[in-house]
Amino acid sequence: MTDSITIRRPDDWHVHLRDGAMLEAVAGYTARQFARAIVMPNLTPPVTTADAARAYREAIMAALPGDADFTPLMTAYLTDTISPDELARGHEDGVFTAAKLYPAGATTNSASGVTDIANIRAALEAMQSIGMPLLVHGEVTDHDIDIFDREAVFIERILEPLVRDFPALRIVLEHITTADAVRFVENAGQNVAATITPHHCHINRNAIFERGIRPHAYCLPIAKREQHRLAVRAAAVSGSPKFFLGTDSAPHAKRDKEAACGCAGIFNAPYALESYAAVFDEEDVLDHFEAFASEHGPRFYGLPLNEGTVTLRRESVDIPESLDAAGGEIVPFHAGETLRWSLI
Ligand code: DOR
Ligand code: ZN
Question: Could you state, in order of their start, the residue ranges of all structural domains in the chain?
Fold first, then answer.
């Protein structure tokens, strides 16, 4: 039995670092585990200009110790009126690594998102021609579509036509939750990939209703039936270069989750690698972990692999019930559980 695993330093290809006091509280967790991270732009107001992304990148670095070896990779928040020139200039200047499509109203701080794909055609043309990846929150927002079907319907109604219309656009379908998404990504060209979160590998929708309502298991896209969890988990451990690590760590204060209208988001940054390692270990493919965590992402983005390594040991780690953050508390994923791998 393997008791320790050393892998090339990994990256997180999808994370929410927030701003202000929450940024101060959470940035270190991600920087401790990962060399780089794709930082989501859904702040208030959203990050829509290269100047705003530059300022945000500086705020992230200022929230970390001076010697932190961490690179935030910034993203632009697409709106109906985003300027293709701003995107292209920001990309050329090395400020925007990618741009994020939030269908308006799909999730946290997505009110300024895109109301109709037709409105961003010029932006997508520009991104396709300069090789700037499009990151997609893949859910329709129609309230007559069942919440558990919103990803599958998005793929059929929005993503399939988009991939047809922009055949060379690099697309990452973020935080996939369904067998439909796995199938779609597998069958698409090499320009289409997906990120997978630890929580969608561990929990199905029953976790949200386990002997009562469990706000800390609520995120968007919402966890689906067991058959979908199994499909997502199989994709993560498959070794296919189309699937890579993206935590979607999304911190919200405990009081904002445990409310009449609780926020969507699971905060998994503190023990993300431990959580993923458990999945690869349970599936008996620890030898596929490094490629998923450290190779597939940079290769898709056309970025160099990281130097250096991290080591996880088969040693129990007790996950705390809550962590102090931003003058309150925040509940991490796996709170109160014991994980069997620890990051050294
Ligand atoms: O659960 C989620 N939380 N899903 C998202 O898409 C956004 C995120 C957040 O920002 O809280
Ligand atoms: Zn996210």
Answer: 9-308
